[in-house]
């Protein structure tokens, strides 16, 4: 249903409303990822005897389940589209190599910052979207 609403807004040219609905779609997808992880977690014996020792006395054993990364690119594509609609350039982040330790200077003018705010919305909204994008990227399996 959400995908159809997003398509409708996109067709009408309401790209920011489309991005809002797509944020809800990504939220639903991430809820499903979390639910799938909880279902695949191993069930531990609670209080059962194992070789004469209660399981509570054995300590904790960490097991990493199988994490399938199929579909990660599609979710990340949605996140990138949402960021582009709101004027967030994820490619603008310059990763520095530990060997080079180079620096980059800012070349943007403050007057262009006011123009960007008028085009894309509030900086607080952009920061929230970046936080959501980071949370999605961290929560995806295999990343």
The major pleated sheet works out as: 2 strands, antiparallel
Structural class based on helices, strands and sheet pairing: mainly alpha
Order of helices and strands: HHEEHHH
- Work out the helix count: 5
Strand arrangement, major sheet: 1-2
Rounded to the nearest angstrom, the distance between the terminal CA atoms is 28 Å
SSE inventory with pairings:
Blueprint lengths: L1 H11 L2 H26 L8 E2 L2 E2 L17 H14 L24 H11 L2 H17 L4
Antiparallel strand pairs: 1-2
Q: In brief, what are we looking at here?
A:
The protein has 143 residues and is mainly alpha-helical. The protein contains five helices and two strands; from the N terminus they run H-H-E-E-H-H-H.
Describe the structure.
By secondary structure, the chain is mainly α. The chain has helices at 2-12, 15-40, 72-85, 110-120, 123-139; strands at residues 49-50, 53-54. The protein has one domain (2-41, 67-101, 108-138). 55% of the residues lie in helices and 3% in strands. A hairpin with a 2-residue loop joins β1 (49-50) and β2. α1 (2-12) runs antiparallel to α2, α2 packs antiparallel against α3 and α3 (72-85) packs antiparallel against α5. The model is unreliable at 102-110 (pLDDT under 50).
């Amino acid at each position: 249903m959400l995908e159809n609403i997003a398509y409708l807004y996109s067709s009408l040219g309401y790209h920011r409303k489309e991005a809002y609905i797509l944020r809800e779609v990504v939220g639903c997808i991430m809820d499903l990822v979390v639910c799938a992880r909880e279902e695949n977690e191993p069930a531990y014996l609670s209080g059962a005897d194992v070789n004469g020792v209660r399981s509570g006395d054995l300590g904790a054993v960490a097991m990493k389940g199988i994490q399938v990364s199929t579909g990660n690119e599609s979710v990340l594509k949605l996140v990138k589209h949402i960021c582009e609609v709101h004027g967030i350039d994820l490619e603008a982040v310059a990763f520095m190599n530990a060997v080079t330790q180079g620096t980059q200077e800012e070349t943007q003018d403050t007057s262009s910052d006011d123009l960007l705010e008028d085009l894309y919305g509030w900086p607080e909204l952009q920061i929230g979207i970046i936080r959501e994008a980071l949370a999605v990227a961290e929560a995806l399996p295999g990343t």
